[in-house]
Amino acid sequence: MPRGGSILVSDGPGESRAAILDDGGRLVALFLHRAHRAEAGSVHLGRVTGRLPDGSAAFVDIGEPDAAFLNAPDARVLGGLPAEGAAVVVQVRHAARRGKGARLTADVSFSTPLLAYGPLRPGVAASGKLAKDRAKALTALLRGLAEKGEGLVARTAAADAAPEALGADLARLRAEWTLIDKARATAGPVPRRLSPPPDLLAEALARWPEPDAIVFEGATVPAQARRRHPALSDIMEAARPDLFLREGADEQVEAALSPRVPLPCGGALVIEPTAALVAVDVDAGPAAPSAANAEAVAVLARQLEVRGLAGHVVVDFIPDRRDPRRRDLIALLKQALEDDPAAPYVAGVSPLGLVELSRRRAAPPLADLLCDADGRLSAETVALAALRRVLREAEALPGGAPVLEAAPQVIEALRGPLRAALAEAEARLYRPLTLRARDDLARDRVETVFS
């Protein structure tokens, strides 16, 4: 079980971020929520806008630019796909990706590090990773706690949990569902969001359960964080602004968007995602093939998770006469991927000598979250970073009138889909933020002026 290192949490205008850093300060994973997007785990009251002729799926409007997709198996708790025009409560399973609408389910569920809770699908179970006797005991306990129609699953972290802790988590999860049900019954527009995505810290803790420190950017630790994770309260601390910048997380995220990754031996990995697969080439540079390949294995295992790459991955390692069939290399690769939560499968070596593996897709790739299809930072990414920069610089110039100058696309994003983020930034500044579009600025460049 991963332990040590730290989790950094930053809640900026329009965007929340959490980063896991290991003991060496290396980025393990980045978690990102943007307020204007339907993120995975968020719950919505949507409107069915159409169905496929064969009845295998329905299109649902949840307020996103592209219609979301509800497959028939994901609507079983409703007794089948709802009719066109019907209002339906759905949860986002997979957020929208470039031109593809979000994937939905009507089988709404919530979780804590200890419990998974499904209010619409009855049944009690325990994680398959638990010891049999402990799983049996937890299952018996949950049967006594479950109400009619509820589904409960004891997660791996519940192995040493006290009954009181499980009961407290269950009470919180029930309360969350009650609020959603009340919001659904309240008159209002359709579509609308009923519940935000899961706690960002909880997502990070699911990947990294035992950090040495949880650091929040801001003057104090949020009370909500202490309330939701009381057992970790002692390792929570607050830090001044620039947390991600100061701890090197921003720099490492930027590096993870580059196709070239330097190796300590002087060589490099070149990682090129395509529509069909992820192609990886190993360049030895001045090093011996065996040394470069060994370093490439360790770096590749980390980069796959940091970049959120999934699907079919093909790696062209350097031919090595000492290991012509690459058996040693395959063994090293399997070992390096053991802790990856996406459960990679190493298929072996193709007839052409390429190492093939697959990795389960759990979230959109980092590049999809931050960049446009051309690989450049999107106008939204630049705009949100610009708002954080204005707030940071305003700390040193509390009396100045802030002006943000940026490319027209960035200004348009702030006046359009990110207008709520702009309003949030102005509320934190206690004064308006003037926007100026400049045609001479590249999209990834912004300038701030305090007059």
UniProtKB/TrEMBL annotation:
Top-level taxonomy: Bacteria, Pseudomonadati, Pseudomonadota, Alphaproteobacteria, Rhodospirillales
InterPro entries: NA-bd_OB-fold (IPR012340), RNA-bd_AU-1/RNase_E/G (IPR019307), RNase_E/G (IPR004659)
GO cellular component: cytoplasm
Protein name according to UniProt: RNA-binding protein AU-1/Ribonuclease E/G domain-containing protein
RNA-binding protein AU-1/Ribonuclease E/G domain ranges (all copies): 117-361
Domain of life: Bacteria
Species whose genome carries this gene: Caenispirillum salinarum AK4
A single GO BP: rRNA processing
Signal peptide from the UniProt entry: none
A Gene Ontology molecular function term of the record: hydrolase activity
Names of the cofactor(s): Mg(2+)
Keywords of the record: Endonuclease, Hydrolase, Magnesium, Metal-binding, Nuclease, RNA-binding
